[in-house]
Amino acid sequence: MLLTRLAQRHSKFDAMCLPNGVVAGLVGISAGCDAISPAWSLAVGAVSASVYVLTVEAVKRMRVDDVVNAFAVHGGGGSWSLLAVGLLHKDTGLITTGVADQLWSQLLGFLLLSALLVPFAGATLVLRRLKLLRVGEKEEEEGLDTVFGLHAYERHSNFVARHRMISSLLNDAGYSAEQLLEALR
Q1: No. of H helices and E strands in the chain?
Q2: Among residues 69, 58, 52, which one has the least CA distance to residue 4?
Q3: Measured in Å, how far apart are the chain's first and last C-alpha atoms?
Q4: d(Cα 33, Cα 28) in Å, to the nearest integer?
Q5: What's the distance, CA 106 to chain centroid?
Q6: Looking at per-residue confidence, does 80 or 163 come out higher?
Q7: Would you tell me how many other CB atoms lie within 10 Å of the CB of residue 75?
Q8: What phi and psi, each to the nearest 5 degrees, are found at residue 90?
Q9: How far apart, in whole angstroms, are the C-alpha atoms of residue 60 and residue 35?
């Protein structure tokens, strides 16, 4: 929380920071959960939460639309998770044994995974520049699921539609929903 306040000096308090920081901590220990001691696990989780905060700021600076900070939680926390194994593995970690072989192996894996993302990130940036990643206002209002013939919130949508229709009828008749409920009692 303190790191968040320092990193986000000019922004409002972010209520999602605490739960996302906790999830980032859990993601951070996931790669080495069987190979890192409980004491080191706490440190890995704390560092992962800090990586989350820094990643959120980097993503904001790149003007990427990540409303729930999923990349910061999973990308940042997961990247640190890979490197933490190389540092803190109880049998082969650099800090625990003084041997760097595991760290080099983990770093190579991280670099290879990152290299796989480059073409996708490049294509996304091109599509973004061409303004092909936006949907129309109608699709935004109705929900993107309906564009694909899906109805993720159909029950909810039907409820909202009925509510709007009843409210409109009541309003046209000069009544409010509260007055109707009172009359029904």
Answers
A1: 11, 0
A2: 52
A3: 49
A4: 9
A5: 24
A6: 80
A7: 21
A8: -65, -25
A9: 34
Burial class from Cβ neighbours inside 10 Å (0-12, 13-18, 19+) for residue 89 reads: buried
Tell me the pLDDT tens digit for each residue of 10-59: 566 677 888 999 999 999 999 999 999 999 999 999 999 999 999 999 99
Which amino acid is it at 97?
T
Specify the pTM: 0.67
Task: Give the burial string for 148-164 (b: 16+ CB within 10 Å, else e).
Answer: eeeeeeeeeeeeeeeee
Per residue in 83-117, pLDDT tens? 999 999 999 999 999 999 999 999 999 999 999 98
**What residues have CB less than 8 Å from 128, skipping those under 6 apart?**
none
Could you give the angle at the alpha carbon of 168 between the alpha carbons of 167 and 170, nearest 5°? Answer: 65
Distance CA 85, CA 35 (A): 8
